[in-house]
Amino acid sequence: xxxxxxVTIKQSNLTNNCPECFNQDLKLSFYQKHRYGKLSHRxxxxxxxxxxxxxxxxxxxxxxWTDDIERTFKYYQKxxxxxxxxxxxxxLFWILMLLLIVVVAAxxxxxxxxxxxx
Length: 118
Known about the structure:
Blueprint: E1 3-14, E2 26-36, E3 40-53, H1 67-79, E4 86-89, H2 91-112
Antiparallel strand pairs: 1-2, 2-3, 3-4
Transmembrane segments: 92-112
Keywords: Membrane, Transmembrane, Transmembrane helix
């Protein structure tokens, strides 16, 4: 089973008022999902966000956003540049691939020689 990890792309402090406690200490974070498996490491194009008040510690969901917060969010969302989607293979994958090639080559060699061993 592949493990998923959210990697922070950008964090910004906002000066908008918190809808819960009305202080001006918000933090907006953008995350990109990475998947780690035994054979590969995949960077996806899925970007998520989270808005947290640093004073009261509450997560502010889009339902409670004011117009000012929404405008600020759209501005910062345009500035976020995620990493390109990619697929990287691990060392275990390359070892298994090399082993498979050796087994297939040995099978072809034995088939050509008529099953005789040296």
